[in-house]
Automatic annotation (TrEMBL):
This is DNA polymerase III subunit delta'. The keyword NADP does not apply. It comes from Bacillus carboniphilus. It comes from the Bacteria. It is an enzyme of class 2 (transferase). SUPFAM superfamilies: P-loop containing nucleoside triphosphate hydrolases (SSF52540). The gene is holB. Its EC number is 2.7.7.7.
Length: 335
């Protein structure tokens, strides 16, 4: 457990210092908002804080021991007074917040303390956010709320004003690549993974995930199809892409890798090949660098970014992908 806290200190020194001092001084806030990009350790920090909150054998007055009954149950995810709320489908609904409030109206099962974490708090419906707001305005004693978001700009200002905000910063890409290579990851894969996540453990999970291995191949195949013909690219979407990239998180990963290909083409044109994310795809990248203008590449990058922005709000992902492919082939951008 001390190792996990040390990892937090190394990766997020500012966040770790704020939490450590609050625990030592017994001044934990009743509500925190952990904000930052994906893979920066927000959920792990929430779990560590919960363990410190309940642990009776703190190390150096702030680190959870990892061995007591509370620490072990929180680590395994089955502590009766620690709750995790995640989106039900695409959003967190009012009923989920009401169920949480009802649960917290009861006496604690193992102590007088209660702790809850809301993941993707920005995805709360308006009714859910208003229910939570009432909860935050009248906090229960010895209760801590952690709200986690990657898009703090989507949070209600009234909720933000009732939380202590702690920002989780992206890791240094070079440091992450170094850690991955030291873990036995090939250099080219370490470079790709470092662009997709800021978390070493998450990167290793992706590396060993057969879905991800196939996703990487399919992204490269789609790129090749787009360079050939409109019909082939749309057919590839129908036959391969939609079957493999099914939920929005998977589509985001695919679009990110697609974006990296165009960025690699631009790097070749600028004679900065040491930055390539797909060095094994060099021959195809060089061909594209010869035939595509820099303006077309930049428009293609903007098209992919626009597709990513639209993805969370769009109800027809297939139509969105087909429109992206058509615009990429035309060398135009939709904004």
């Amino acid at each position: 457990m001390t190792q996990k806290w040390t990892h937090l200190q190394t990766k997020q020194p500012t966040a770790e210092k704020m939490l450590r001092q609050a625990i030592i001084r017994d001044r934990l806030a009743h509500a925190y908002l952990f904000e930052g990009t994906k893979g920066t350790g927000k959920l792990e920090a929430s779990r560590l804080l919960a363990q410190s909150f309940f642990c009776h054998q703190l190390i150096d007055d702030y680190m959870p021991c990892g061995e007591c009954h509370h620490c072990k149950r929180i680590e395994s995810g089955n502590h009766p007074d620690v709750h995790l709320i995640e989106p039900d489908g695409q959003s967190i609904k009012k009923g989920q917040i009401q169920a949480l409030q009802e649960e917290f109206s009861k006496s604690g099962m193992e102590s007088s303390k209660k702790f809850y974490t809301i993941v993707h708090a920005d995805r709360m419906t308006t009714n859910a956010a208003n229910s939570l707001l009432k909860f935050l305005e009248e906090p229960h004693q010895q209760t801590i709320a952690i709200l986690i978001t990657e898009q703090v700009q989507k949070m209600l200002s009234t909720i933000l004003s009732r939380c202590q905000i702690i920002s989780f910063r992206p890791l240094s890409t070079n440091l992450l690549i170094q850690q991955l290579v030291e873990s036995g990851v090939p250099q080219d894969m370490a470079t790709l993974l470092s662009q997709l996540t800021q978390n070493v453990d998450e990167a290793l999970l992706l590396l060993n995930d057969e879905w991800f291995a196939q996703a990487r191949k399919k992204v490269l195949k789609l790129y090749e199809a787009i360079q050939k013909s409109e019909g082939e690219a749309l057919l590839w979407l129908q036959q391969e892409w939609y079957k493999h990239f099914q939920d929005r998180d998977q589509i985001h990963i695919g679009l990110d890798m697609f974006l990296f290909i165009y960025r690699d083409v631009l790097s070749i044109q600028m004679d900065k090949r040491e930055r390539l994310t797909f060095p094994g795809f060099l021959k195809e990248l060089e061909q594209s660098a010869l035939h595509l203008s820099q303006k077309t590449i930049l428009l293609s990058i903007e098209t992919i970014l626009h597709t990513k922005r639209m993805l969370d709000a769009h109800t027809n992902n297939q139509l969105l992908m087909e429109q992206m492919v058509l615009n990429l082939q035309e060398g135009s951008s939709v904004v």
